[in-house]
């Protein structure tokens, strides 16, 4: 068959390498991104990165506010002549009538080894849960949440020092390479149904996911710090005041959860449920981040000070 024509659905920076890799090998007949949103203190209406890049490249661009029941957009996708659509971090659920339009349907680049970590935040939850390996899945999109059959899959080892920022970069590069392979092999890829019994979920993060659980062991505290590095970042509380923490790593020591074990030029050592962590930087609300040692001196924090304990509410 001749090279397929592609409709690309994506929005954030993560999707840019995937778009670039596709357009280098195939004809992109339509780019679909989320609508422009107010950004910054001035609330300036700003296009998502994929929309901005499509405009730079002169590619046909659509930014529908809704998909379900949107006959105008359905006609635009149909008239584009796309043989297949590719989604990468687009951010909207695709209704069945839309999925049926391209000849080869929709292919999704999902940043986990499905059926593990279905959902909006697979990168973050893989780190929070302490995984050592993740990967990219190219799947055929159906009406479910990442439930479609698997077309291609490749593992990616997670470096111990990676946060969600570095892992996202690595997975974006992998996804770009793997989707090009999948598109090059259409229609010969054999779909493999997912094993529902092995499915796990990765829901969208909320601010509370960044709150330190001092009662957990030190490894779990560091895993969470790495997983929420992009957003919402790591938050602790001292006498009710919120503090953003940076540079968390495993340290020696044992004490009561949240207890400061020592302060030195390298930062604060704080006890967890088992073991301890070192904090390199602290950022009080409405102030800039500073070295943990400098903050401790100005805040009167020393060995024996206890951070507030926070636990998620029982469901």
Mean pLDDT: 96
Task: Characterize the overall form.
Answer: elongated
At the fold tier of CATH, the topology name of the largest domain is Rossmann fold
The domain count comes to 2
The appropriate CATH architecture of the largest domain is: 3-Layer(aba) Sandwich
CATH superfamily of the largest domain: Formyl transferase, N-terminal domain
Unreliable residue runs: none
N-to-C span = 53 Å
* Total beta strand runs: 17
Helix content: 10-25%
GO cellular component, one term: cytosol
EC number: 2.1.2.9
Catalytic activity: L-methionyl-tRNA(fMet) + (6R)-10-formyltetrahydrofolate = N-formyl-L-methionyl-tRNA(fMet) + (6S)-5,6,7,8-tetrahydrofolate + H(+)
Domain Formyl transferase C-terminal: 205-298
């Amino acid at each position: 068959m001749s090279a397929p024509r592609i409709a690309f659905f994506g929005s954030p920076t993560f999707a840019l390498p995937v778009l670039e890799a596709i357009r280098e090998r195939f004809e992109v007949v339509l780019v679909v991104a989320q609508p422009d949103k107010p950004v910054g203190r001035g609330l300036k209406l700003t296009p998502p990165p994929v929309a901005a890049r499509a405009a730079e490249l002169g590619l046909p661009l659509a930014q529908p506010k809704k998909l379900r029941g949107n006959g105008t957009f359905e006609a635009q996708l149909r008239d584009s002549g796309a043989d297949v659509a590719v989604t990468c971090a687009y951010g909207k659920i695709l209704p069945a009538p839309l999925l049926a339009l391209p000849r080869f349907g929709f292919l999704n680049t999902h940043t986990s080894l499905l059926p593990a970590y279905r959902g909006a935040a697979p990168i973050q939850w893989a780190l929070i849960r302490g995984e050592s390996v993740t990967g990219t899945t190219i799947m055929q999109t159906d009406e479910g949440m990442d439930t479609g059959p698997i077309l291609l899959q490749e593992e990616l080892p997670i470096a111990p020092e990676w946060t969600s920022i570095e892992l996202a970069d690595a997975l974006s590069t992998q996804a770009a390479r793997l989707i090009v392979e999948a598109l090059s092999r259409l229609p010969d890829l054999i779909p493999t149904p997912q094993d529902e019994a092995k499915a796990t979920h990765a829901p969208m993060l909320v601010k509370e996911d960044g709150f330190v659980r001092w009662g957990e062991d030190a490894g779990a505290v560091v895993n969470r710090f790495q997983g929420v590095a992009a957003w919402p970042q790591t938050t602790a509380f001292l006498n009710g005041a919120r503090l953003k923490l940076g540079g968390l790593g495993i340290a020696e020591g044992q004490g009561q959860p949240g207890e400061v074990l020592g302060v030195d030029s390298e930062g604060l050592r704080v006890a967890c449920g088992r073991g301890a962590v070192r904090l390199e930087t602290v950022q009080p609300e409405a102030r800039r981040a500073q070295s943990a040692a400098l903050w401790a001196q100005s805040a009167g924090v020393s060995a024996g000070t206890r951070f507030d304990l926070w636990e998620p509410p029982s469901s």
